[in-house]
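Running log. JK asked me to keep both predictions on one page so they can be read side by side. First protein, sequence followed by its tokens:
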Amino acid sequence: MDIIRHKKACVYMAVEEILHDQMMQIAVVLDVVDRARSRKRKRRVLAVPYGIVHRIPDQVKHLNRIIGFSDVDCLLNLRMDRNTFGRLCLLLRDLGGLKDGRFVTVEEQVALFLSVLAHHKKNRVVKFDFWRSGQTVSHYIHVVLRAILNLHVILLVKPTAVQEDSTDPRWKWFRGCLGALDGTYINVMVPNIDKPRYRTRKGQISTNTLAVCDKNMKFVYVLPGWEGSAADARILRDALNRPNGFKVPRGSYYLVDNGYANSEGFLAPYKGVRYHLKEWGPMAARPQNAEELFNMRHTKARNVIERAFGVMKMRWGILRSTTFYPVKVQNRLIMACFLLNNFIRTEMDVDPLEQAFDNLPQDNEFSEPEHGDYVDAVEPSPEWAATRDAIAQSMWQQCLMDNRARYPAPFCCCGNGKMLLRCAGWKARNAGRYYYKCPLNGGHEGDFLWFDEVHAQGEAAFANAPPPVTSFTSNSVPRSANSYTDHARDDTGVGNTFPEVGRARRDTDEQNNFMFMAIVFILLGFVAGKLV
């Protein structure tokens, strides 16, 4: 009996140990589960401040920093002051179809879009600045882009022709002119298979954008999307042939450069004659004939489109570098930049980028007529060439009349009346200078006065007494100068009314020739020494 009891006691003790071990294991498992649950609770507590509701104060604070404190911050970040930004939001809300989202207001949507255009920010940067997700930023950029493009009828301006009584020194010579047009390259990102078509003559991958502006630097028509390898004339021809494309009323015209044909509706400068502004600097020669005078005034007026392009690329950083959007979206962004530029020029009283043009008339309403006689081709014609010649001759005759009124001719010492203004010929030592000569050649064939030497004494000298006469031999007087408008060139082949410029050029040429000959002789001596 004792043995049986002992065995039962041993079994009970073994069962008790097994149960105790199981209870300890269960306690350990429950402790692990409880710790895991506590960690999840802590994670939830830490994640609460980053929810949508908790991010709203930071979002409002950032937007108020941009548009709520000062115009300076708004200009630096959005390229417009607070008043203009508010008007743009109202316009997009009322006419563009833009609406407040569930968590994003119209003001924040527009601020998102303008910050991308102004500084070319990437999606990750914008979402960090505005406390939004990348999907939200991308969605509202496209929404605002569509709303702005819907306002193109309002934002594109209708140009007005230069009137007969215009007093603008740049435009009064081009009566009937509507503005200027040109193309500009804007870098884009395209697939590798399309890069040869978009490669420009400068080696960049760009799109050639045609833009037309009026004399107030407001854009009338914009056509983006053409490849960088396309010629300007081809793009203009395409713009004219589109159903709702570029319209030029007959009898009016735009100023263009030599990349376009001088045809009806498009006035181009003379080819083979100096044209660009850098060729008309302070030390350059004055216009010597009607063609040069026309080109000088043409480039000064047409420069309005170049200034408009410069202001555009200064204002919108997205136009200065390549974007990673699809080509179709990139072309729409380019169009939106041009439209917003018109709106800013119309609404802002003072623009730091355009302070010189803040007093121009405000007219941003565009209403295209349904019927009218428009230019439909870009082909050179003799009639339009004659029109250009008539404008050039009119400019030249007016210039001569102004000069004669400003600088009256002196009296000849022989008493035969006022002397005639002539131009020195090719063989004269002072070629390119103007001089006065006796009209009757009565015993004074070799006596004349240099134009610049006479008028350096001032206009009062002609009213009080005749100036002194400098005598020269008859051989030094050019015989071929028989009119007021003879065209002369100095030894360098460039017309020059300023003697000091001609002398400096001749001295420089002589020095260059001397140095060239010296170098040649040194090289010949060196080669001869090697051969010996």
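And the second, directly underneath as requested:
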Amino acid sequence: MKLVSRRSALSAGTTGLVVVGGLFAHLPQAVAATGNDLSYVCSTSSGIYDITLRAGSSRSRLVAKPGKPLAPGKVTLSLRLPERMVSDVLKQIPATEAPAQAAGISGPRLSGTLRSAVAISHGGRLTDAGWPSFTLEATNTEPDHRGPVELKGTGPVPPVTIDSPGEVVWIAPNLNLDLNGDEGNTDARPVQAVCALKSYGTVMRGSVSGSGIARAPGAGSAGGAGANAQVPDEDPTCAGMPGPTEPGGGYNDDPETSMDTPDLPKAPPDARHTSSAGRPQCARQSGFANSKKLGAALPLGAQARIRNSVDAWVDRGDNNYIQYRGYILAVPAATQATMLGFGFMPTTVTAKVAQVPTPRSNGNRNANFRADFWSNSIIPTVAENTVWVKAATKIQVAGVLVNGTPVAVGDGCAAGPIPLKLSSYLGNNVIGANNFTDGGTYTGHAEVPAFSGCGVGEDLSPLLTATTSGTGNYVQLESGKWCTLNPNNPDPSKCQPDTNTEPKTITVSPGGEVTAVAKPFEIREADGAFRSIKCETATMKFTLPKGLWQPRFKLATIKSRKFAGCTYGPSDVPVTVTANTESWSLNVRQELTDAGDIIARVYGLQLTVAISGTDVDGDGDEDSCRLRLGTKGKTPSGKEFDGFSSIGGEYSDNSLHGTSVLDTLASTDCPAGAWTPNWASGEGNFAFRPGQKITMSKTPE
């Protein structure tokens, strides 16, 4: 293999470094819902354009048993090209009058060939799916067509045989597109477009159940016998993290990774401190990192090995406080990605991102973590309800291909150490709470320092530094449940069946402004006379984010809440119902079905029911009554407080089927017997308009 210099391979334009690794970088990327449009940025000789890709399979469900072919069958790919791109491409191709044009059809006569290095993600590994090229034809052939053009092609793709359980995901990080114009000009050279995925998404997804690794497609499959060659990794399995006094264990002593820095809160004085050997655990994580200079979102994956609860501070009094500390290690992996450089050259970089020691860490490369949360999630706490992780990482560049040509970067091309701080908010007693071992969303920013040691015969380090290094690189990781191992037998098979699962991500489509209306909404006494308060409508208005990687907590903040046509009792006495001033929060609680259906709840509820100038008890006198509903709580010392309730349930058919439990917080000036001072049930089916598809990624069995 001939290695070339920067002068011959990079003179056409600057290349950008892309690392699909991360702090934890070698298990499967998170699986999101299928059927979404995937956004790509494409470069031609005339400009840069945004296009979309949508894939469909002839199979309604992609399901296979272990060791049996998982066959998508025929796949249809649809590309949507913007009008400006179509116009620019047609200008570059000399036209020869074709019979269709002579007949008066003047619409865009585009066709093309699409090549994509589709990969399969499963069980911690990426494999080449071996997909063939697709011939694409324009579906917009009407005369004088204006606007975007759709190119569509259909063809068979090879099956893959998998012996292990869980999700199987097809991803297409890069596209190569040859565009042809008028069919009458066979001598015209196609216009080439190189496209890179803007934000992570899946082409298709399927599932199996069993144990093993992906096999290559069978004989005759497109892509050849080596189509499913594994991207090498080191050891992506769950394994016991060493204890504090064992080799490889213990906290990182670098002050940059300390959990006692001024920016972090102190434990309350009454919290009792204990130390122990801790608990060995594992957690799968996946997400993305935005490269600010390249303007792209890069997929991440992880199998984190954890030592939890090495230190603990506990105050189970009214402070309601627990703090756990420990450390984490992720085994590095070599990963590949192809992106566009600033010179519009397709550039493939193989890199390894690893946790590394720093000059002040005494050789320790572990990441320190700290979790501040509650002892009881339904009462107030002084804790920040947050998990922090601090680590040092290093990017090691192993190889670079520019337009398919190897570029010699040498063995020492690297950047780092890179300080990285991530945090995850756990919620609270108002908006709902989650234990950190149940998984959550971790976010932070990374500053990539200058590269060094890059190049053979000439120094390529300044080039990589100029195109990649800098601040503002956003990182987001979703964590699955933490698996607890037996410290005396740290075998991954000892994890509980519902732990060490794939991270769960939320996908929303189309998102935007939503009006959710329940017709009717009813609050009914749980005992006594079973009186009820009925409203013709209960309306919530809020904004939903659009797309992949949305958070489970505070998926939406609800400030607009109105109740109309409300009455009390069998006599339909008119009443007004109002919400508390605090905002409500829409949270996704759990996955309900394999299809990604969810259970969601709206948190932060307190309601006030008011009656004014109406005879409620039939004694002939006008009554004025105010009834407050929510959740009645009591602190460990016995102090009562007015808490917040929630309403929710299954989300299906564009509706949240909500039920709630509401305690009586106060009954002011209400006649005796007007309402039983106990708990009541609330119920209403909130129809979302416009309809919203909200799904959570499937957890493998």
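Observation for JK regarding the second prediction: Helices lie at 6-9, 83-92, 99-102, 461-468.
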